[in-house]
Amino acid sequence: DDPAEVAARALVAGGAAAVTTTRREVDGSTRVSGRAGDQAPSVSLSDEGAVVSAACGCFFAKQHGLKLGPCAHQRALLLVHDA
Q1: For the chain, how big is the Rg over CA atoms in Å?
Q2: What single DSSP character describes residue 65?
Q3: Beta pairing partners, 43
Q4: Which of 10, 27, 74, 81 has the fewest CB atoms lying closer than 10 Å?
């Protein structure tokens, strides 16, 4: 399994991930914000559910943006949002 996915599932299973706000943006995307571990990630989704932009203060997200996919914190937020 992908290490970021494993870490995301661990954050969710441990109760360390929560969606705090979900907001429809002017551009039509849906912005989901929340907490995952010690981070406050956010993800913007298209109507089809694709990640169009994302932010997180962790090292992985700062280094790679979305080039290698969402970080574990962003993935945990998505898991909670989709549940």
Answers
A1: 12
A2: T
A3: 32, 54
A4: 27
b/e per residue 43-68 (b: at least 16 CB within 10 A): bbbeeeeebbebbbebebbeeeeeee
What per-residue string of b and e applies to 13-42 under the rule 16 or more CB within 10 Å gives b? eeeebebeeeeeeeeebbbbbbbbbebebb
Task: Please tell me the distance from the alpha carbon of residue 67 to that of residue 25, in angstroms, as a whole number.
Answer: 23
Binned average pLDDT, 10 residues per bin, the chain of 83 residues? 92 96 94 97 94 96 95 97 88
Question: How many residues are given for the chain?
Answer: 83
